[in-house]
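User:
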Amino acid sequence: MIKVSMEVREGAALSTAKVQAESIREAVSITRERYPGRDVRVIFPIDAEDFFIESPAERTKRGLLADELAQT
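Assistant: Predicted structure:
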């Protein structure tokens, strides 16, 4: 399992979401399903310390972890 930050944009509105998934491709897919019709991108650089999920408790969760609104 991995965890990445995603940028979600709709017009001028911008938010970020942290996503846990089996792959980056799946993380993008999960985010697109959660936010249909919005532009979705992986935020680079990926935080190497948080990328791989190692604890059993974290591995049992799946999908979006948190939304951090950053309205612009």
